[in-house]
Model the fold of this input.
Amino acid sequence: MTRSVKWTVLLLFSLFGAVIGVYSMHPGATPAVAESKDKKYVGDQTCKECHSKQHQGFLKTSHAKAFKSLSDYPLVEPVESIEVINTILKDFPYSYRFDLKSDLIKGVMMDHYLIAEAPKEANFYGSRNNPYFIVASLHPEAEGKWSLRPAIQGDFNSDGMTDWGAFSYTCIDCHSPGLKQNEPDLRSGISCESCHGPGADHVAAKEKKGTISASSEACLNCHGEGKPQEVNGKLVAQNHYGPRFFKASKHAQDETMQDCTVCHTAHRANAEGHLLKANSAEALCAKCHTDEINLDEIMWKNPTDARGHFVRDHSFGAIRYDDLGDNPDTKPVEITNPDVIEKLKQAYPELKKEK
Done:
């Protein structure tokens, strides 16, 4: 491929990426930070002046580790910089050396992926017109130390050497909403105002009640259920962030049970590390139900999801895994049983309209 042809292809790809960036969103997800016309954010430090207990509890939750500073991870051996190659455009394996102390290093997602912002001169191009890339991975070692390793590795520029690869950071909407919003008063990860919305009016108000949001709407920005998709006569449910099949449950028919905060809290984790208002799911269910609860039956896990990307089923027994006709060798949850498909179409009327 000649140099001029390469640059033409690159230009066309960039324009295509910009268009895709405008029109594409993660299925079922919207930006996690609550929207506001003025967007008067005050930051976590201001929030915790009055809500220190909630803030301390939040710091122990999985939401708090959704995105943290690299400085929170002391390395076994000092590393000043890393050179990575963009793996998205195979015909243009551009490399860039990131100084780990520079402002381009944005943070670490879920104690694992190191995220950096690729400057224009790096000639990195990602999906959804997104300048953020996963450039390395962190791994726990002894004595609270961490090692830095490639997020992906291979001979990406065909020089016979093993390279560190970089690829698009597409989890930004929910794991680091503050980073996407580019608001100086918001922490890069999930903050108080990611869920409650801008807090300036709440801080200024003499009467605080009713001046800040706290409802399921905030949860559903990232934990939206997402309806199953019909593919070749079967239904496929693959969303990893939402309460699968909740609309098919009896809880969904009870107005008093439809808010996420009936069972969940974002301000503290229980003894098992979950955001539940009891030390276990069984104990929580027992507050209303006297029957013995078998969690694996009424809230089954996808058996092919080793990394835990999929939440437990939230139909609470209405849709049982053994009834799905799922292929356990594939990661998505596939529903081939006609009776279950019909039941889900009753719960999701929009499926009836699709061909």
Notes: Confidence is low (pLDDT under 50) at residues 3-34. The two ends are 43 Å apart (CA to CA). The CA atoms of residues 27 and 226 lie 7 Å apart. The chain has twelve helices and eleven strands.
